[in-house]
Amino acid sequence: MVRGLLSAVSHTILRPVADPGPGEQARAQAARTSPVFLTLAGLLFLGIVTLPCALGYALHPAGTVFLGFVEDWPDTLNYFSFVEQARHGHALAALSAGPSPGKTYLFSSLCYLMGLLCRLTGLEPPEAHLLTRLVFAALLVPALWWFLRDALEDGPAARFALLSILFGSGFGFLVPPGSEVLHPTDLWHVGTIAIYACASLAHLAASWWTLVLAYLCLGRAFERDSLRWAVAGGAALAANGSLHPYHFVSACAVAALAAGVEGPSRRSFALAAGFLGTGGLAFGVQLYLVVSQPLMREVAAQSMNLSPPPWDYLLGFGLAGVLGLAALVDWRYFRDVIEAGELPEGPAAAHDEH
Question: Under DSSP, is residue 281 helix (H, G, I), strand (E, B) or coil?
């Protein structure tokens, strides 16, 4: 379904711009050009997310320390403290705040890995954070490309999708400052936009990468009827759960939707269960750490935030949100494309022939 839906959107919008020719020829051309395209896109992406920190390190005044380009200093300093504890061999990070300092613990696989990096190389936490952020930013580009190539067989459409996700933003810049009605997510949550996430915090870049891998594997599991791919996707989801456990909730919805689209059956249920069963392990550990510690229960209670209105998400996701909405609005047309695997007869098909 996902492949058909994205193909329908891409044919409707992109085919009038660039007709790659017959399908097989287009796929062969895309296969030949994708390494060069992917390399150039990846280098440009890394250059943009590296430039602010490179200038900061080069231009900071003598006697000062440049800690990086980050969006949320309180959270970032906490991460640095977790990395410092991991540097000294502590897998569980003790919180220094609260009524019982040192008695409340958290676990972050990424902070632990950065602590090991500091211990092995002698780097300080801010430097390890910068290096880790760039590594995951680099890994995100090919992972996102594989995901899009699985969903979009049309080479130009996949390349356009990759560029729009890597370099695009939401429509928050169009909203008047101080608006009391519109609050697009890209203005207050950098994690929703790839280039913002990879330019600020390592755990956001790592979260993007692990989630893309998880859904890439889930899509292949249903396409190839493979429990191995489902478990592999669950492993990526578990890695994400050790950073951002709340993503497991949305992953449950995605897996349920995928199983429902495939049709209710024991096999589709087994694939979804394999994905969520593996991915839920990390969520279970994180949930236990929260509910078993009084301070963490208080933190969780204070962190309950209502989801913003749908239009804030639509504006925050920018072009991707618009294309997703278009796909849902014209569902009857796309249903024919999904079922037939090709463009139906109609105005869009006639336009495509010209």
Answer: helix
pLDDT tens digits, one per residue of 36-60: 888 999 999 999 999 888 888 888 8
Q: Which long-range contacts (CB under 8 A, 24 or more apart) does 27-31 make?
A: 27/153, 27/155, 29/155, 30/149, 30/154, 30/155, 30/156, 30/158, 30/159
pTM: 0.80
- Report the C-alpha gap between 74 and 330 in whole angstroms: 44
Do 198 and 52 form a contact (C-beta atoms < 8 A)?
no
Instruction: For 93, list phi and psi in degrees, rounded to 5.
Output: -90, 130
Q: Comparing C-alpha atoms, which of 270, 256, 281 is closest to residue 227?
A: 270
- Tell me what percent of the chain is helix, strand and coil, each rounded to the nearest 5: 75, 0, 25
Taking a C-beta distance cutoff of 8 angstroms, is the pair 186, 57 a contact?
A: no
First-to-last CA distance in the chain? 27
Instruction: Take residue 40 and report the two structure tokens written for it.
Output: 């150039």
Residue-wise pLDDT tens digits, 11-39: 433 333 344 444 455 555 555 557 888 89
> What is the CB neighbour count within 10 angstroms for residue 173?
10
